[in-house]
Amino acid sequence: MRTLLLSLSRNKRLRKWMETSPLARRLAARFVAGNTLAEALAVARRIQADGISATLDHLGENVTSLAEAAASRDVYLQTLDGIAAGGLKANVSIKLTQFGMDLSEEACRANVEQLAARAEQLGSFVRVDMESSDYTDRTLRLVEELHARHGAVGTVIQAYLLRSKKDVERLCDLKVRVRLCKGAYLEPPSVAFHKKAAVDRNFVELMRLLLDRGVYPAFATHDERIIRETERYARERGIPREGFEFQMLYGIRRDIQRRLAAEGYRLRLYVPFGRAWYPYFMRRLAERPANLLFLLRNLLRH
Ligand SMILES: Cc1cc2nc3c(=O)[nH]c(=O)nc-3n(C[C@H](O)[C@H](O)[C@H](O)COP(=O)(O)OP(=O)(O)OC[C@H]3O[C@@H](n4cnc5c(N)ncnc54)[C@H](O)[C@@H]3O)c2cc1C
Fold it and tell me: Most buried of 29, 57, 105, 253, CB within 10 angstroms?
């Protein structure tokens, strides 16, 4: 089912139909803040009132021209400005394929550098999401370079990749902020653990490494067992609650979100917005096919 949903996420016809269907858009509202920046800023303001911060993600991956890449960069510049103007505790998450990585590494770097410079100026932060393993080396190279120049840039490490421990150690040495997640793409066994137990074990090992040696690490998961283990390990090592944050996706496991915020843990929600929401939405369904039932129930109700 997961593989089917992930391959449907790349189907162009279905994508076009879904992204222009008002009904499908309403169903996606559980996971996506809205089509516009104003809607995303409104969500960030609302969750901030509950003690939760945000990272805003303008949806859209794999642009096909440098003009589109520049347009993505401009949306993100406006997003950083909107966050600052609204006095919000929020930052941004970007994907390099949206900034032109498939077309020109150099142009992509120049686009991200403009954003990093603006984030540095505003005292904000740019998180570079990690895409499939084809991009891992290029992503780390770019992040390390821009971090050295601007500071306001960090990235993501996926616990399912076999290489991740080495990458975490290097990023800790370079003092680059890391978000640890399990990983969301289909990867071959030559590069990734496939058994959930192995991925979870690696997540816990990397979590400990990051709490011991990382700079303000972020743990991005809805896995209650891992979240509890992170809380336990931080307590055992005397690491204060301000020394790290949990991150979760907007609309997912709101019960855990409420508990963490109520108990004084730092929590940041990944808040996606924009018209190109279909691939993101399908990845969320693929992670939890039970969400399909939720979707079908809603479809039947309309
Ligand atoms: C803030 C954030 C940023 C991320 N950034 C990246 C990135 O840059 N690159 C990348 O590859 N991946 C990224 N991911 C996705 C991540 O890799 C996983 O695919 C995703 O978080 C699901 O894994 P999990 O850790 O929640 O654990 P799982 O083992 O998948 O799930 C644990 C439990 O969480 C709940 N759950 C998980 N997913 C869902 C869902 N869709 N709907 C309902 N319940 C759910 C269920 O209760 C499930 O039992 C990010 C995730 C988060 C939270």
Answer: 57
